[in-house]
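From the shared-data thread, chain only:
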Amino acid sequence: ERRKQKRRERRKLLNAAMQPGYQPMTYPLIIDSGAAEHVIGPDDATQVPRAEGPQFGKTYSAANGSEMVNSGEKVVTFVTRDAQPLRLRMQECPVARPLASVFKLCQAGHRVTFNPTWHPDGCMIEPLDEYGWPIPEATSWMQPRDGVYVLEAKVAPARHRVYTPPAGFTRQGP
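Structure, as tokens:
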């Protein structure tokens, strides 16, 4: 019964994502194992308000060695093409493409799996339950594009923002 309820919720979320107001990204989220932060450009997720966060003004180094200044943060609720909500606290910087940090995803209770493009298991982001086991029905599948793995997603409008607390458990102590 619980599985049926989850399927109904997923179907409802996917149907909602087809309605006006869900903003497609100009480029999907790049899932980056080398990124320390989730970052987004000023032209992405424009319907989400930017706030000065604790990282405001911080300087980041890009892969090409140039420096970028943090102009704030956005808490963005995405809906993946697999009808999974994903809420990310993204740092706004002058980047060409949005990046999701594998480190941050893992710290928030997800498991990120990269496989060769021909591998039958595919590439995925799986939330973990309180015991550290993956939740298969909540998996988001990544796609290869232009030499990187990406996650196709739309930005939820303010009226449909979904709060998804990090799955899994938080450790107490060191």
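The two ends are 39 Å apart (CA to CA).
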